[in-house]
Request: fold
Amino acid sequence: MTVQTINRAGTLLLVVFTLTAPWVLPLFVDSFWVDIYSEILIWSLLAASVNLLFGYVGLLSFGQALYFGMGMYGVAIGIAKLGFGFWGGFGFGVVLATAMAAVAGVLAVRLTWHYFAIITVVFSLIFYFLALSWKPLTGGDDGLPFGMPPLISIGDFELTLTDPDVQYFFIVLMVGACYALMGRIISSPLGRAFVTVRENDLRASLIGLNVYMIRLSAFIVSGFIAGVAGALFALFGRYASANFMFYHVSGEAVVWAIIGGVGTLFGPIVGTSLLIVLREELSHVWAHYPILVGIVVILTVIFAPKGIGGIWTSLVHRFAGANAGKGGDQ
Amino acid sequence: MTVPLLEIDDVTKQFGGLRAVDNTNFTLETGKLHAIIGPNGAGKTTLFNLITGTLPTTSGRIRFLGDDITDEPVHKISQRGLARTLQIKSVFGGLTVRENLWIAARSRYGVFAPFMSWRRCRKSNERADAVCEELGLMPHADQLAANLSYGDVALLEIGLALATQPKLLLLDEPICGMGPAETEKTVAKIQDLSKRIDIVIIEHDIEVVFNIADEITVMANGGVLAKGTPDEIANDPDVRTAYLGDDDDA
Ligand SMILES: Nc1ncnc2c1ncn2[C@@H]1O[C@H](COP(=O)(O)OP(=O)(O)OP(=O)(O)O)[C@@H](O)[C@H]1O
Ligand SMILES: [Mg+2]
Reply:
């Protein structure tokens, strides 16, 4: 078996599980786990947006919740205040998040390392407080609820997210499309340029790459992905809230990405699943469970800097008898 | 008269109180292998930094093939066909040799193509393989650059420059730290390249320089002390006293 076959099999397993989860999961566990799995898929996109920046371009953002929040508010304001339909609201959220990322990115990607991390936090804090205080538009502390418009409505035929299966498969479709998009970009010349900039930005510019534009495009794509996550989460919860724009949320996404494995496409899904399941199971029994999460993060950073995705990769390489560490960036 | 390859016109670089490059003037013509020599701290590397845009100039103009490139962004200067290796060797350690060369080759066709597959870029693949072959790096093509020997890293860095199809190649101490066999091979390669690409080489190994250079520029204290053929430089009294005379390596 080659590395590709094993990885393909793993991907196939994930896809099959995801497509059958509404029927398979209730056979083993309580059916609310289907909802939790939808949530995991959505949040994994936020982790994936961190991963795209950190794992591929080498920029660590602690402000991805801002674009998530923009996606959320875009949907809620679009539907509740502007009278947009389902797709109008969804599109508005994603466009708003992407535009926000373009504006913030123009300034942020001039910086690197901790300066970059700090400026991303600062941006997200500014808009967090703005969302909290601008009550008429955002609902402030209470958040902004909205009624769910139909997804499709032709004559008598109507699909709405109030049907749990419709909701589940709508989320799966959108999340799947985002991963397909990221997979495509990562294996394109632009994706190679991302990795090149991560490896050595001076050398990258000396071979004629516009490092600034490359970082900016990664930042915008990553804002787009976080925006889709936020828009989906608003539809899932039927409301938007500033709480999800707080830097605590950004930080969680960083943790999920790091534990899942930065620089691997599906690492974020693994990390997000693990930690959300852990939260579901432990938070009632032990209020201080975040200490455990903290310890796991520290151990990961020290002993497995490429996270679970990295461990998987090296296991697969060993199993397939291939040279470990060979061309490690897919 | 043809357009000069490189014109350094009253160029100064000030670091706080230190003038690393001090009102320097010189012109290089195409078709020659140029060498820059000079004692440690003479300002050679700093001059390369100014030419390639990695440091801003304090004053003066730099022209490449007639175009003013002073303080242009680094990547734009590279796109004009000016490539460079660094004194402290610099490649993409986490990528394989082939991937390193591929991205350098691809830089000429633009990387903002988010929907095509990088493995299907025929021209860049061919270019990368050709450079890999030319520099004898094929046995290491699928090895991570971080795992190469020092000499091979230096070769790969020259490869990165070549893959960008440069008109002018600036080499900053390319054979420093190489063993005798590697040195011989690399020097032969540089001579070979100089037949089709203009080269400026900074080098401390005087023997090598006098062997391969068509023209030598001697720098000291941020300025040009002398410029001429190897014979002229060897017989220049200023150079003999100021540099060759008291350099133990010579
Ligand atoms: N970025 C910098 N900031 C401050 N001073 C610098 C910087 N770069 C170089 N210098 C100083 O400028 C002077 C010229 O340095 P440069 O590296 O150009 O010398 P060089 O001729 O390349 O020497 P070598 O043969 O040792 O490489 C030195 O005194 C050096 O310390
Ligand atoms: Mg130097």
Residues 323-330 of chain A have pLDDT under 50 and may be disordered. Chain A is about 75% helix and 5% strand. Residues 9-329 of chain A form a domain with the ABC transporter involved in vitamin B12 uptake, BtuC fold (CATH 1.10.3470).
